Amino acid sequence: MEVIAKFTQDGLARAKQAHRLFVTLTYAQSLDGSIAAVRGQTTLLSGAASMTMTHQLRTMHDGILIGIGTLVADNPSLTVRLVQGPSPQPLIVDGDLRCPLSCKLFTHDACRKPWLLAVDGGWNEDKLARKAALEAGGAVIIMCAATPKGRVDLVDAFRQIHARGITSVMVEGGASILTSCLMVQATDSQFLSHGIVTIAPLFVGGLKGVAALLPAYPRLHPVQVASLGKDVVMFGPFAPPQ
Q: Which parts of the sequence belong to the Bacterial bifunctional deaminase-reductase C-terminal domain (predicted)?
């Protein structure tokens, strides 16, 4: 665990010196690449040691980013609980402002109120009403450019959160966000900084964490491997695709 923390600290220091946003892509998967048995349902994959590592990584980042699908399915607190340290700022990619006010981020005192990364478009009476209600509940809503498919442009979203003082982001998923980040990385090798992937010794045959990324394959190089309890963790800096 210490070697992964040192690896992350060194990357954070280099990014700070270069005045760049530091982005860690991290998630857990099974041996067959599944992150859940069924879409929309939580599947516990990581062991205790890997979970502790994840919480340690959270203390080292300013923000933690997930998609609205993961928030609705898992209702996570996105706090630090297994180690001592500050909890990161929740960042939710939520193009249409579907974040429910009943989720833990609004109802639990231990949780920080979320920043919602929404598409600046498609405004109608319902979306305007949701925006007003979420802001009244304490959310910060950041309006972002849209991709050609009408989704949140992650490059613009990351630029905006960096301008607001977030210097490091931990991307935890789910599948749509992981794939979107890696698709940007396939054309912009500076988008992601580090990758940390926990592999549990299980075959699940469920929802894959990453969809097809052709025509380029983002890669980690040089890659390191560490054992954490029953799990194996592969980690390294992102390198230009081959």
A: 22-233
